[in-house]
Amino acid sequence: MTVLKPRSRMVSVRLSEEEYLALRDLCSVTGARSVSDLTRDAMHMVLRGAHRDGFLGFYMDEFRNQMRNLDNKIERLAVDFASFKSEAKH
User: Which tens digit of pLDDT belongs to each residue from 41-90?
Assistant: First the structure.
């Protein structure tokens, strides 16, 4: 396969075995051809986001909101479960 944009620069990062295996597993899930491709795609996303104000902040806020919603749902389920358990005893 012909490379359209030859790559001449390299960035080296040390990873633990667990980190590397997690990235390799992520390649399978996302369909990336290699850890290098997966990492390059992630860097492109970061670089695109760095040029837009609040890109990462927006996603972090969205993530926090979703976590709060999940926390609230878990609390409601715990209350419902306790109520159900109490009714089952009677």
Answer: 888 887 776 666 565 666 777 788 899 999 999 999 999 999 888 888 76
**φ, ψ (nearest 5 deg) of residue 4:** -75, -35
Domain hosting residue 38, numbered range: 16-51
CA–CA distance, 60 with 66 (Å, rounded to integer): 10
Residues 63 and 34 grouped into a single domain: no
Locus of tokens 């899930």: 29
Distance CA 11, CA 76 (A): 47
Same domain? 62 vs 47: no
